[in-house]
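We examine the record.
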Amino acid sequence: MNRNRYPAPPPTWDTAQICLNGHVINRRYESWPTSNSPYCPKCGTATITQCPKCKAKIRSGYVGGMPSLTEEKADPFCLQCGAAYPWTETRLSAAREYIRELDRLNDNEKGILSRSLDDLVRETPQTPVAILRFKRLVSHAGTAAADGLKSILVQVAVESVKRQIWQPTP
């Protein structure tokens, strides 16, 4: 006897509201409109609910599901067009500017480190190479440089990067 005669309804996603700096304002923009805000309470920046490039809604959790009680981080890229969201672009730009200020690296090393950033925020075949370069060059730049770049990139770096660069090995 087939108890599942009728297919399950397709998942319905809510929309996330996120400030331009990546602070999650409301994971349930449509279902909990009383939690919406045009500006971020943490940094005062305007909020968005759609990708600036393709205008697709920023996907959040299932409608009807329980929201997480812990603050979730914002996705770095649009699921529809693959473009970096503004908070990802801003963090990459800040990291590149930070790298330009590192006195212990020469211009060639700064260029290599800067070009490696894109593969630290995306899971690509070049990500392991970027991790290796990042670790090598940042070790030359010093602990303060490593800490500064971590504070900029930790919100947008892929999990494998975080594990291999910033979590101590047991």
Summary: Residues 13-62 form one domain. The helical segments are 86-100, 107-116, 127-141, 143-153, 159-166.
